[in-house]
Specification:
Order of helices and strands: EEEHEEHEHHHHHEHEHEEHH
Number of helices: 11
Largest sheet: 6 strands, mixed
Mean pLDDT: 93
CATH class of the largest domain: Alpha Beta
CATH architecture of the largest domain: 3-Layer(aba) Sandwich
Helix content: 25-40%
Structural class: alpha/beta
Length: 234
């Protein structure tokens, strides 16, 4: 469904990604792991059109994404949940969710989607009239994911969803991501908790200094000595 093929991405003259290739099949869950600064967030930003590849191609469901504006990429069915959550602090929870269904195709099904999203995240029903900025960190993360789901995406990209959360809230977030995947939505996950990420997905890629240095099934990466030493502390 998603094919990122041999992309080079730059910030000015600094090359952040070098010949990066990533694939996500329809209905699959995939993670990208690596040290800080390895290029994980850059990869997601490039897929969603916030950055442009200088070389290589990005295709989603047969569409070339390389030169499309972000809103057209979103309209094709890709939702990007950025690092830091970025909810609208002065809008209510309900208004934040409604903002997620801004595209015409999503707006037509807004009430149906809202009911589905609130079933997945019942805490947001309780907080529906509360301002987004007054929620706890974990609740804001739930809201950010739920707002992305209001787009009715086929692919959900999540950038560090557990960052800054207490362990119990982080685990709750992971459980919700797994539930969303079981609903049939493909997942591309960037996550600092490597062990938990690899227990959540089917396949993974390891980025190092802007390049893919390892890839394989989640089980293979969990058993890989290089991954154990660098990321799992084993």
């Amino acid at each position: 469904m998603l094919e990122v093929k041999q992309i080079d991405v730059y910030y000015g003259e600094f090359q952040a990604l070098m010949k990066v290739t990533v694939q996500v099949m329809d209905g699959e869950s995939v993670t990208i792991i690596g040290a800080n600064g390895a290029g994980k967030s850059t990869t997601l930003k490039t897929i969603s059109g916030l950055l442009r590849p200088r070389e290589g191609s990005i295709r989603f469901d047969g569409h070339e994404l390389g030169q499309l504006p972000p809103y057209e990429i979103a309209a094709l069915g890709i939702a990007h949940i950025p690092e830091g959550r970025r909810v609208f602090p002065e809008l209510t929870v309900l208004e934040n969710l409604e903002m997620g269904a801004y595209l015409p195709s999503a707006k037509k099904k807004r009430q149906e989607t809202l009911a589905w999203v609130l079933e997945i995240f019942p805490i947001l029903r309780e907080r529906s009239k509360q301002m987004g900025g007054t929620l706890s960190g974990g609740e804001q993360q739930m809201l950010a994911i739920a707002r992305g789901l209001m787009l009715r995406p086929r692919l959900l990209m999540l950038d560090e969803p557990s960052l800054g959360l207490a362990p119990i809230m982080a685990e709750n977030t992971f459980e919700k991501i797994d539930e969303i995947h079981r609903e049939g939505i493909s997942i591309l996950l960037v996550e600092q908790n490597v062990m938990r990420a690899l227990t959540l997905v089917q396949r993974g890629y390891v980025l190092g200094n802007g390049q893919i240095v390892l890839q394989g099934t989640a089980n293979d990466l969990l058993e890989n000595e290089q991954v154990k030493d660098a990321y799992l502390g084993i």
